[in-house]
Fold this sequence. Notes:
single chain, alpha+beta, four-stranded antiparallel sheet
Amino acid sequence: MKKTRYAAILTLILCTMSLSARANSSVGYFGFEPDIITNYIGGSSKKMGYVRVTVDLMLNNAADIATVEHHTPLLRDALVEILSKEPEDKIKSLSGREEIRVKSIAKLKKLLKEETGQEIIREVLFTKYLYH
């Protein structure tokens, strides 16, 4: 009977600690509106395609959302530049998409570090990725 009580109390304490850790989480999210849409050069030089990406940023601190909003034009330009320079095979493959995402993380982190002096972005998420 005592073991059951101790187990119940321990479970209650762990659940409370888990909930308080979630409440103290200060992660924020910022989504670019509207989607990022740009052309890319197709396999033949005469063929052009387009890619449409919904991009969300996972921020280290929700308080930095206003800072990211302020720098949205700079960040949007960097994403368009990255996507428009990629070849068709990279745009259309899963491994290429991941390479583009990693390249985007590095570029956006670098830009915001230069502008603010802080590490603001934790992750770049492509929540919708369409190409033609």
